[in-house]
């Protein structure tokens, strides 16, 4: 098929590569404008742009797609389908109507659960046992279009957003290739999303990072997993902000925030119920370290209270 592809991060790049491997003709790639990144804040091309350039595909990077002028490069190309994956820019109805067979979205949840910006993180944070990929026929709503196919991905107790992202990216790449191979049948049997079970995955905010040790241990561990790699959870040792990247449920009790043990196995901290063993931590300006290496660079005393 002749396609336009719209996407920005690594999740989308995996789907673009799969479409190229499957022999689809990618006439144009839409991706967000280059953004400053790194310590030098140099402009960095998105993973999708980098992949498109490697394959000699034309790239278009509008800030928005609201006006006829902004839409003109898309409207100038007659294509069968636009495939959208984590693009990050709203597509107005006029753009959705341009491809012959419409626009398909690769969404990283089992719709209608976790519509919105952060479905991977919110699924882990909520303690969901499974998530997946939904291939959706896009409409003008926020992830409200009819569903063409679903692919379930279990969430393990060890999954972080980082590891679950990689599983879903691989599944999404497979799912969109399979959907395009059987598109007329899938579109004929498209299922509207049910009204029941709708949840919204709001964008992750940095101010959600702080751990409240009054929470149950299970809730804290889920948040640790959900916020890796962004923004990372935080706690205070005195006035020093420590990032807590990974942890596990452990036996222990005490006043919430109290350090119960600090050794090579981890930093054991009492929660509102149960305890959490922090296994990967980071000091300001430092690197992510195992608990063993973190403790070698500075002590946490049994009995002191994190907050």
TrEMBL record:
It holds the Pfam family Formyl_trans_C. The keyword Protein biosynthesis applies. PROSITE patterns: GART. Transmembrane segments: none annotated. Residues 2-180 form the Formyl transferase N-terminal domain. InterPro entries: Fmt, Formyl_trans_C, Formyl_transf_N, Formyl_transf_N_sf, Formyl_transferase-like_C_sf, GART_AS, Met-tRNA-FMT_C, Met-tRNA-FMT_N. PANTHER family: METHIONYL-TRNA FORMYLTRANSFERASE, METHIONYL-TRNA FORMYLTRANSFERASE, MITOCHONDRIAL. Attaches a formyl group to the free amino group of methionyl-tRNA(fMet). The formyl group appears to play a dual role in the initiator identity of N-formylmethionyl-tRNA by promoting its recognition by IF2 and preventing the misappropriation of this tRNA by the elongation apparatus. This is Methionyl-tRNA formyltransferase. It comes from Chitinimonas taiwanensis DSM 18899.
């Amino acid at each position: 098929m002749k396609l336009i592809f719209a996407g920005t991060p690594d999740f989308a790049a995996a789907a673009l590569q799969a479409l190229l491997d499957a022999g689809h003709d990618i006439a144009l790639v839409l991706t967000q404008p280059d953004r400053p990144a790194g310590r030098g804040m140099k402009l960095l091309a998105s993973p999708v742009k980098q992949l498109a350039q490697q394959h000699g595909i034309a790239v278009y990077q509008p800030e928005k797609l609201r006006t006829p002028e902004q839409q003109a490069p898309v409207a100038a190309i007659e294509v069968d389908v636009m495939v959208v994956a984590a693009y990050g820019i709203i597509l107005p109805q006029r753009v959705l109507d341009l491809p012959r067979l419409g626009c398909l979205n690769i969404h990283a949840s089992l719709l209608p659960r976790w519509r919105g910006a952060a479905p991977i993180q919110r699924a882990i944070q909520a303690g969901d046992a499974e998530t997946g990929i939904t291939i959706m026929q896009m409409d003008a709503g926020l992830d409200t279009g009819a569903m063409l196919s679903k692919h379930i991905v279990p969430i393990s107790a060890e999954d972080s957003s980082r590891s679950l992202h990689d599983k879903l990216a691989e599944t999404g790449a497979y799912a969109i290739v399979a959907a395009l191979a059987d598109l007329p049948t899938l579109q004929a049997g498209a299922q509207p999303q049910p009204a029941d079970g709708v949840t919204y995955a709001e964008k992750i905010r940095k101010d959600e990072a702080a751990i409240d040790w009054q929470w149950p241990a299970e809730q804290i561990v889920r948040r640790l997993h959900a916020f890796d790699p962004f923004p990372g959870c935080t706690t205070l040792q005195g006035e020093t902000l420590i990032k807590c990247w990974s942890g596990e449920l452990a036996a222990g009790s005490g006043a919430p925030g109290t350090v119960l043990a600090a050794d090579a196995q981890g930093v054991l901290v009492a929660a509102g119920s149960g305890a959490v063993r922090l296994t990967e931590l980071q000091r300001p300006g430092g690197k992510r370290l195992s608990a063993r290496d973190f403790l070698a660079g500075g002590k946490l005393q049994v009995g002191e209270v994190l907050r």
